[in-house]
Amino acid sequence: MASRQSVSDRWRNGTCSCKDTGDKAMNIVWLGFGKMGEPMAARVAATGHTLHVFDISEERRTAARSRQLAVVESLEDAIARADAIVSSLPNDAVALNLLAGEGGALRHAKAGTLLIETSTISVSASASIANTAAAQQVGYLRAPVSGSIAAAAKGTLTTFVSGPVAVVERARPVVSAWASTIRVVGDAEQARVMKLAVNLMVTTLVASLAEAYALCTKGGIAPKVALDAISTSAIGSPHLKFKADALERLDFTPTFTVAQMRKDLRLISDGARELSVPVLLGAVVEQIMAATDASGFGDEDYLASAKVIAGLSGLTV
Question: Where does the sequence pass through the membrane (predicted)?
């Protein structure tokens, strides 16, 4: 008997295609094939869209080819033929240059092209991209993602989206390839603010976990006992348990590095300043991450802040 999975479930597990839903397959140019971009792009390609990958790194282009994905040789030509552009980029500078710069992708896009921008960037950078997109008559969806690389591979990321209703609905089948939860939060730059707000809470949670770990350890509680108790307490959450389990193993393999989190904390601080919102805890966490980076842990997971807190407590992790 055939499975009775819903269409949305089949998008998430990678068994649903454009043909199944009646959606038209699109010619998509994917900009940025990094740690998150790779599994997200692979899921979109698996749903039947034609995907062409652009990345300046030869290592990342090789990774795309290993997944049987076409690699763009001429970005200008590829963009001119594209129905949609999806970008997954590391910071404001790269996003502004690659999308809205003089020779950027949007300058070559035809009217009616869809841009789905998934990076964590500032409101001001996103607004500049929006202006260029509007001038080129490109539909612009702000769609930053929240979750791990593993969640991206499973299609269970959360994506915060904002933009015109028609653009949101046109982009939804593509976004659904990597996101099990799509939160529409506004019609302009609200998705950028939402992502930074969530990251503020995420990094504050991990910093408080580091302090609780040091407190319990110095108080004579075995690390496993303490972390199990924390994970199942009233404060428990899937993310807290994930990080507590990693801390128990002393596993600081990066899912999101200290350096990346410092970038996000700068965006949070700048954005809060523009809105006249105090982020008192955020300012403290920003200093904790700066100390973690200065201690030589910048390329480790931001959970490595636990090593710095432990050191300040007279402990060794």
Answer: none
* Nearest CA-CA partner of 27 in 44, 55, 52: 52
Q: How far apart are CA 96 and CA 86, in angstroms?
A: 14
The DSSP code for 301 is B
Q: Which amino acid is at 234?
A: A
d(CA 267, CA 10): 35
Q: Hey, what amino acid is at 232?
A: T
Tell me the per-residue pLDDT of 152-175, one tens digit each, with 9 for 90 and over: 999 999 999 999 999 999 999 999
Distance CA 231, CA 168 (A): 36
- State the CATH class of domain 194-312: mainly alpha
Domain 7-188 classification at class level: alpha beta
- The neighbour count for residue 122, using CB atoms within 10 Å, is 22
- What are the residue ranges of CATH 3.40.50.720 in the chain? 7-188
Q: How far apart are CA 305 and CA 204, in angstroms?
A: 11
Burial 302-316 (b: 16+ CB within 10 A, else e): bbbbbbbbbeebeee
CATH 1.10.1040.10, the chain: domain bounds: 194-312
- Give 258-272 pLDDT, tens digit per residue: 999 999 999 999 999
